[in-house]
Amino acid sequence: MSLSQIPPALAHALEARGYATLTPVQQAMLRRDAEGRDLVVSAQTGSGKTVAFGLSMAGDLLGDSETLPDLGAPAALVIAPTRELALQVAGELKWLFAQAGGRIVTCVGGMNPQMERRALAAGAHIVVGTPGRLRDHIERRALDLSKLAAVALDEADEMLDMGFREDLEFILGAAPESRRTLLFSATMPKGVAALAQKFQRNALRIEVAGEARAHADIEYRAVRVDPREIEKATVNLLRYFDPPTTIVFCNTREASRHLQSTLQERGFSAVLLSGELGQHERNLSMQALRDGRARVCVATDVAARGIDLPSVGLVVHADFPHDVEALKHRSGRTGRAGRKGVSVLLIPPKMNRRAESLFSQAQVFPLWQLAPGPEEIAKLDRARIAEDPVFFEAGGEEEAELANSLLEQHGAEKCAAALAKFLAARWPAAEELKDPGFAPPAKGERKEPRKRGEPTDTVWVRLAVGRSQRAEPKWILPMLCKKGGLHREDIGAIRIFQDETKVEIAGARAEDFLKAMRRPGPDKLPAEMTSAPTDQELRARPKPRFGDKPDGAPRDGKKKPKA
Question: How many CB atoms are closer than 10 A to CB 17?
């Protein structure tokens, strides 16, 4: 479908943005059988949905006119799940309808509601907002829906998951029955189907098969990493790929805040995008990424929902994604609009099986590898320095005079060395990493997990705590993992004696374990190398019976009755 088939004002805007052809979802919504009808659209994020429903609504808003008429009330309403997505949608619609004289007003939580009410009173053709704030303006009679010709719900499934069902039903119930309803949803759960059935009339279902093609532009990599070196591995990945923009995903606000601080300390221009930030702080982060002042965004899943940064070349999953949807949502931030992108998952040993299951469900086939080391990164740096634009840009007379002066004073070799040092200083130093000591199973091979109690190349360590101090495996095991930095598969047999405990651990972990146990802290518990328990020690050790509790503890978990 050519641009000549859409209103001239919008066609000119698309041409100015470099659109030669329309994307599949945009073409599908302009089909003859979709004209004027309610639509239920399944299309992937990054497929051009915003422009698609903008083009679809254009006929309802413009009619035969080249400019949008002033109706005294909004003619279109777009509802989005988050502030970021709403602001992003508004930005797209502004340039799309600019030549048609379109006035776009946003109404989102976290912004000044009085300023929004003034903007609505001044007149708007299209209002874009989040459900809660839109409902508030309707209830206060600041938002008049009587002239609505079209309503678009972007990411309807996400809005229902976030608990906005009641707000959506209120808004749609307040809109004229004659309006068109365009419902966009990546999936079609029962809630979305019920919403469509209640508020749409004879809706046409449009499914755009584009997921496989979109994800073909994403190269997946599974990087084996020691769990204590997640941050170091992230540093080296940023240095190795060196893309214009990177998004690093964490599962919690605390983790994202800590990682952003760590990256800033290492010398990266990193911003934060998490639910704890106010709208002004989020806007500053997004603007810094868009204008190039920041190149790394550390984000949580909810905060990054719907953000579109075209220059994202790398996505790093510092924390493992919860499910397939999270994996695809995160990875979908890169490889957009025909550009290539890389999605890297950091896989600690204990996540190996879960990672294989997730990849199988998602039907992605990553390249398994270790994180890049300083040697690989240094090799790339040398190539980057040799190809730096500074060598190919023509200098002026002053630069040439200064260069000759420096050559006379210091000679060519020292000048070249100084330039190389100056150019290399732009990048943070790479980190030394340990081999995590595991590898994925070969294709077709089933790798059985090593059971606790059967580690290879083991040693025994002694802890100065025993039955007299009520030592029990149920708190010793977590303590060894937390304080000593071990994984459960690193720990073999645990033998508790009267005044000490002997623990079998993987020999490769022994040195780091002993150092960790000696560090000061409330849970400090000195440990030392020892020999394996003798038969005599084991025979003398009392055998606890099933249901036994530590001395003095009641068996049924209740307090002892007073005598």
Answer: 11
Identify the weakest region by mean pLDDT among 19-33, 100-114, 523-537: 523-537
Side by side, which strands form the sheet with 527-530?
491-496, 501-506, 458-463, 527-530
Q: What is the pLDDT of residues 253-269, one digit of tens each?
A: 889 999 999 999 888 99
- pLDDT for 1 equals 47
In sign, the C-alpha dihedral spanning 136, 140, 143, 145 is positive
Side chain identity, residue 510 = A
Query: Is residue 181 predicted with pLDDT exceeding 90?
Result: yes
Our CA angle for 310, 313, 317, nearest 5°, is 115
User: What stretches of 75-177 show up as alpha helix (H) in DSSP?
Assistant: 83-96, 113-122, 131-139, 156-161, 165-174
Q: Give all domains of the chain, ordered by start, each with its CATH number.
A: 3-209 (3.40.50.300), 213-376 (3.40.50.300), 458-540 (3.30.70.330)
DSSP β-ladder status, 76-79 and 150-153: parallel
Length of the chain: 563
Contact 342, 221 (CB under 8 A): yes
Which amino acid is present at 46?
Answer: G
Distances (CA, A) of 304 to 31, 161, 256, 333: 32, 16, 12, 9
Cβ atoms of residues 442 and 383 within 8 Å: no
Count the Cβ atoms, other than its own, within 10 Å of residue 389: 6
Assign 447 a pLDDT band (cuts: 50, 70, 90): very low
Residue 444, Cβ density class (10 Å: 0-12 exposed, 13-18 middle, ≥19 buried): exposed
H-helix or E-strand containing 245? Answer: strand 245-250
Taking alpha carbons only, the member of 342, 235, 340, 351 closest to residue 298 is 235
The SS3 call for residue 228 is helix
Q: What is the pLDDT of residues 63-119, one digit of tens each?
A: 778 889 888 899 999 999 888 788 889 999 999 999 999 999 999 987 889 999 999
Burial environment of residue 113 by CB neighbours within 10 A (0 to 12, 13 to 18, 19 or more): middle
Burial string for 123-160 (b: 16+ CB within 10 Å, else e) reads ebbbbbbbbebbbbbbeeebbbbeebbbbbbbbbbbbb
pLDDT, tens digit (0-9, with 9 covering 90-100), for 35-66 = 889 999 987 666 778 899 999 999 889 877 88
Q: CB-based burial of residue 34 (10 Å sphere; 0-12 exposed, 13-18 middle, 19+ buried)?
A: middle
Q: What is the rounded distance in angstroms from the CA atom of residue 250 to the CA atom of residue 165? A: 28
- Predicted confidence at residue 521, as pLDDT, reads 65
Contact (Cβ atoms closer than 8 angstroms) between residue 160 and residue 192: yes
- 75 to 41, 62, 79, 188, 234: CA distances (angstroms): 21, 10, 14, 27, 47
